[in-house]
UniProtKB/TrEMBL annotation:
GO terms for cellular component: cytosol. The gene is bglA. Its EC number is 3.2.1.86. The keyword Hydrolase applies. Belongs to the glycosyl hydrolase 1 family. It comes from Companilactobacillus bobalius. One of its GO terms (biological process) is carbohydrate catabolic process. GO terms for molecular function: 6-phospho-beta-glucosidase activity. The active site is at 386 (nucleophile). Keywords: Glycosidase, Hydrolase. PANTHER family: 6-PHOSPHO-BETA-GLUCOSIDASE ASCB-RELATED, GLYCOSYL HYDROLASE. This is 6-phospho-beta-glucosidase. It is an enzyme of class 3 (hydrolase).
C-alpha cells in the first residue's frame, strides 16, 4: 500500500487563542484587555474591512461601563479557563502531539504596566502546560494574540508608544522564565502583518486618539515597535535558553491574478510582497527596499532608536509560522467584478473555487503554494499553526455533529500538505487545525461560526450548558493520527458517511 511517509517527529496538533476560548475575563486578578471591548456583531460590512475592524474611544467607554458578558462574547469564551483539564484530556484522546495556544497578557500583568506579575495568572498557565506535558503534548506558545491590556491603550496609546516595548519585554520574559522548562516553541506576536488590516485588535490603536497625526504613520510606527519587541525576545531566548525555538508568524492568504493580464499579475505580486515584507524583516533582519520605498513615497516616517537596526538584524526568527484558510484573486481594475472575502481581507471572486458558508473561497492547493513560496524564499523551517473551516454546525437530537464539510476541508488541505512534504522538499515542523473546541470568532465575535473539532453547547447570546460533544471531524482526525508517520494514500479516498466513534475505536 502506498503511503505518505513523514518525519516521526512531525507535530500534529490543534490551535486556539486565549481571548477566543478562555473566559474568566475578570477572575483571579485578570485585567481588562482590548478583546473584552469587542461586541458581538454578526453583520459585518465585508466590502470595507477597515471600517469593519475599527473601534472608537466612545465604543471602548461603552464596553468599560457594561460589566456583563451578554454582548461581549470574548469575555465568556467557551470557559476553557475552568474546563481546560477536560478539554485537554479529550484532545489527548484524539492523539495530538501539539497544542498551540496563547497567553492573556492581562492575566499576567492586569494593567500592562504593573510592577509585579499576577501570580494566579502565572500558576494557571504553569498548570496548563504541565497538563499538556502529562499527555506528551508539545505546547506551542503565542505571547501576544490580539489582547493587549486595555490600560496600555488608554494611558500609553498602545503599541505606538515606545514604552509598550518595555512592558511587553517584561511580560514576555516573566512568562518565558516561568514556563521555559515546559515549552520549547514560542511565537512573540500572532499574525504580525495584521496590524495593517485591523490596527485595534492587533495593536490596540484607536484612530480618534491621534487627531493631529497621520494614522497610517501611527500604524507603521506601532508595527516597527512590534518588530523591535520581537527581536528583543528572540535575543533573550537565544542567549538565556538556547534550546528554545522562537518563530515569527504571518497571515498567508494566497493572492492570484484575476486572469493572465500582466497588469493583474503585477497587482497580485505587489500584494504578496506586502505580506512577505513582515516575514522578510524577521527572517532576513532588515526592511526590504520595496517597503522602504513605499514608506518614503507615502511620507511615512518611522522613529527609531540607535540600536534598532542592529537588534532586528542580529536577532532573526528560527522558523516561520503562518495561518492559512483561503485564497483570493485580484485585479488592477475591479470595476464590475464580484467581491469575495478571506481572512479579514477581500478580493475578487475566483470562479474555479467553492466557498464556505461565510464566503471564504476554499483552496487546498493554495496551501501547497504557500509552503513552496515561503520555503523557497527563506529556506527556514515552516509551521502551519492555523488551518480550519468556520461553519454552522448542528447538534442532532442524539447529540452528534455530522460535519462532513469540515472533514472535506481538512482532508483536502492536509493531503496537499503531505504531497508538498513528499514532492517539494519542504522543511515543515508541524500542522495545527484551527481549532480545538468551538470558539468565539475573531472578527464577528460569535460562536455560531464554529471552527472546533469539539462542539460547545453555547449560542451567540451566551446561552447554553457549555457541555462538549465530539464532532465527526474529531474522529476523522483521530483516525488520521492513528497512522503515525506512514499515512496511507487510500485514506484520503475513503467515504465520509460513517466517520464516527465506531470507525476509530
Amino acid at each position: 500500500m502506498k503511503s505518505y511517509q513523514i518525519d516521526p517527529n512531525f507535530l500534529w496538533g490543534v490551535a486556539t487563542s486565549a481571548n477566543q476560548v478562555e473566559g474568566g475575563w475578570n477572575e483571579d486578578g485578570k485585567g481588562m484587555s482590548i478583546a473584552d471591548c469587542l461586541r458581538y456583531r454578526p453583520q459585518l460590512d465585508v466590502t470595507n474591512y477597515k471600517a469593519a475592524n475599527s473601534i472608537s474611544s466612545k465604543q471602548v467607554k461603552e464596553a468599560m461601563s457594561d460589566l456583563s458578558t451578554k454582548n461581549w462574547a470574548k469575555r465568556h469564551g467557551v470557559d476553557f479557563y475552568h474546563n481546560y483539564h477536560e478539554d485537554i484530556k479529550q484532545l489527548a484522546a484524539m492523539g495530538i502531539s501539539a497544542f498551540r495556544f496563547s497567553i492573556s497578557w492581562a492575566r499576567i500583568f492586569p494593567n500592562g504596566d504593573d510592577q509585579e506579575p499576577n501570580q494566579a495568572g502565572l500558576d494557571y498557565y504553569l498548570d496548563l502546560v504541565k497538563e499538556m506535558n502529562k499527555y506528551n503534548i508539545e505546547p506551542i506558545m503565542t505571547l501576544s494574540h490580539y489582547e493587549i491590556p486595555l490600560n496600555l491603550v488608554l494611558n500609553y496609546d498602545a503599541w505606538y508608544d515606545r514604552r509598550v516595548i518595555d512592558f511587553f519585554d517584561k511580560f514576555a520574559k516573566t512568562v518565558i522564565d516561568y514556563l521555559h522548562d515546559y515549552v520549547k516553541y514560542w511565537i512573540p506576536i500572532n499574525e504580525i502583518d495584521s496590524i495593517i488590516r485591523h490596527p485595534f485588535s492587533s495593536a490596540g490603536l484607536i484612530e480618534d486618539r491621534f487627531p493631529n497625526k497621520n494614522f497610517k504613520n501611527v500604524i507603521y510606527q506601532a508595527m516597527h515597535n512590534q518588530f523591535v519587541a520581537s527581536a528583543r525576545i528572540i535575543k533573550y531566548c537565544h542567549e538565556t535558553y538556547p534550546d528554545l525555538k522562537i518563530g515569527c508568524m504571518i497571515t498567508s492568504t494566497m493572492v492570484y491574478p484575476y486572469n493572465s493580464d500582466p497588469r493583474n499579475v503585477l497587482r497580485a505580486t505587489e500584494i504578496m510582497r506586502n505580506v512577505y515584507a513582515f516575514s522578510d524583516i524577521q527572517i532576513r533582519g532588515k526592511y526590504p527596499k520595496y517597503l522602504l520605498k513605499k514608506l518614503k513615497e507615502e511620507d511615512i516616517k518611522i522613529e527609531e532608536e540607535a540600536d534598532d537596526t542592529d537588534l532586528i538584524k542580529e536577532n532573526t526568527a528560527d522558523f516561520i509560522a503562518f495561518s492559512y484558510y483561503s485564497s483570493v484573486c485580484t485585479a488592477y481594475d475591479t470595476t464590475g467584478l464580484q467581491v469575495t472575502k478571506a481572512n479579514r481581507i477581500n478580493g475578487v471572486y475566483n470562479k474555479y473555487l467553492p466557498e464556505s458558508e461565510w464566503g471564504w473561497q476554499i483552496d487546498p492547493i493554495g496551501l501547497r503554494l504557500s509552503l513552496i513560496k515561503l520555503y523557497d524564499r527563506y529556506q527556514k523551517p515552516l509551521f502551519i499553526v492555523e488551518n480550519g473551516l468556520g461553519a454552522s454546525d448542528v447538534l442532532t437530537s442524539d447529540k452528534k455533529i455530522h460535519d462532513d464539510y469540515r472533514i472535506c476541508y481538512l482532508r483536502d488541505h492536509i493531503q496537499q500538505m503531505l504531497i508538498s512534504l513528499v514532492e517539494d522538499g519542504i522543511d515543515l515542523i508541524g500542522y495545527c487545525v484551527w481549532g480545538t473546541t468551538d470558539m468565539i470568532s475573531a472578527s464577528s465575535n460569535q460562536i455560531s461560526k464554529r471552527y472546533g473539532l469539539i462542539y460547545v453547547d453555547l449560542d451567540d447570546e451566551g446561552n447554553g450548558t457549555y457541555k462538549r460533544y465530539r464532532k465527526d471531524s474529531y474522529y476523522w482526525y483521530k483516525k488520521l493520527l492513528s497512522f503515525g508517520n506512514k499515512i496511507p494514500m487510500s485514506f484520503f479516498d475513503e467515504p465520509l458517511t460513517h466517520v464516527n466513534e465506531s470507525a476509530v475505536s
